[in-house]
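Researcher: Please predict.
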Amino acid sequence: QVQLVESGGGLVQAGGSLRLSCAASGRTFSSYVSGWFRQAPGKQRKFVAAINWYGGNTYYADSMKGRFTISRDNADNTVYLQMNSLNTEDTAVYYCAAKTFYTSKSYSDIGIYDYWGQGTQVTVSS
């Protein structure tokens, strides 16, 4: 059984920063791509960012470009999401996800991911 465990969420003032982590545990596996999604109350879960473990290429939703940075630590099998210049619209539960095999589909497609974390709450106050 594979588990993805997010951490690093919390309460931050607008303009502040947070760094989320997503650690994989359980049966050893290699991710092909890892992604971050977020879900605000009453809204659908939306793509934030993704990283390809083999080439290291990164992908972002337009509204996150320049503010958020996704990265990975191969040794620890951990994915990070550095979030800067946070605003109240970034308030949501943030989820990490992993896709274990190659896909030709867009990494922003929520349906391609095999494993999901339980989510971590990020609240940005004005």
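Model: The chain has a mean pLDDT of 93.
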